[in-house]
Known about the structure:
Residues 81-153 form a coiled coil. With 429 residues, the protein is mainly alpha-helical. The chain has helices at 2-56, 61-188, 203-206, 210-250, 266-276, 290-301, 304-317, 326-342, 349-352, 355-362, 367-384, 390-404.
Amino acid sequence: MASIIGFMKRAKEWIAAAHISDQQKENAPLKRQLEAEDVLQDGVQADDSASQNGVHNPGSVCSRGSRVSRSTVESRVSVTRVRQEAEHAALLERAAALKRRQQLEQEEAELQRLELEENALKKQRKKWRGIEIARIKAKKEELEMETALAESSAKLKVLNEYERSEDGASSHGRRSRNRGSLRHDVTRVSPPQPDVTTPQAPPQMLQTPPMALQDISSHSNISRDGDILKVMQKQNVITELLVKQQKQSQLPTKDIPVFRGDALQYKSFIRAFEHSIEQKTDNDQDKLGYKEAKRLLHKHYGDELRIASAYIDKALQWPQIKSEDGKALNAYAMFLVGCRNTMEDIESLEEMDNPTNLRTVVSKLPYKMKERWRAEAYNIKERRDRRAKFTDLVSYIERQAKIATDPSSATSQTAVLPPLERTTRKDPS
């Protein structure tokens, strides 16, 4: 685009210079014509003076008359020829200038065409950009609609299961009641008296006591009560699930943060992604291919050493904390607490326990707080028989930040430190 604009600027300057040269060339024949007319005028004046001399010398009139007439005619013819040649030369120059002007106009038209094409290309790009934005917006709306449909399908599934269990329980209760009524009628009906035409029943059926029927009825009642209890337990579980899902639906939607390649934000982004997408569905199609994207992100940004190095680099770039600056100390403590919480599930947290990295973190603290940490680290080594770790340092800085920002404590930094560390030494930095 810049090269086209430069070319157009140079072409316009060249066209202007060509117009000036054409005007000069068009004026050249006119100037020559004026000079020729001046020469002819001088010749006519010379002839007039010669004729006047002839009048004064009558003796020479006869001898010079013929010569004067011939010279006058020749001079007039030559003047006419010179004028015609001058006009012809002027026409030729005008024709040449017209051709050059037409060429310049063609070049100018070509430049205008290039400008129009460039403007049309810009408009087309703008139109394409608008179409792409509309397409992305439509995809977002489609994703929101699919999410809403998935949630609605899950709710309908739970409700259908609840209805089926309720229908099963009611039908089972009706069947149990019918069986119980039939058994009750059987116990009330006396056995028929045998006659001549009725075949006698087997002896064991006639000898069955009424207590056996009562035992069977009581056993069926116990099994029926157990089935009803199981159905009620299932109904309670389904009700709890419905209440839980209703509460979750009333919560505000949790937006997944945009990951921009910062290693410090990788863990929080992955956790938000797992909570918002992975835990809500087991179908890879519903996850919209995020499984592969997650694998690539872990490959490029999930390296444990890289995350630890990012925290160390940020700690190195952290500004020096001045004494009595509770806000700066609190911000530093929050950063370190986030580092500790993020790296709890990372094996490379041991990298933060490196003495060099610990010294880097401690170097940003005020002088008196550094002295206090040396005493704290020695106490840990003496009492617990181990050297201080990154978690110990974070807990120490977090506690000092709470003391420094406590409204009931003194505003001076000496209130943060014990009396043993309140020395008059100055910070060498």
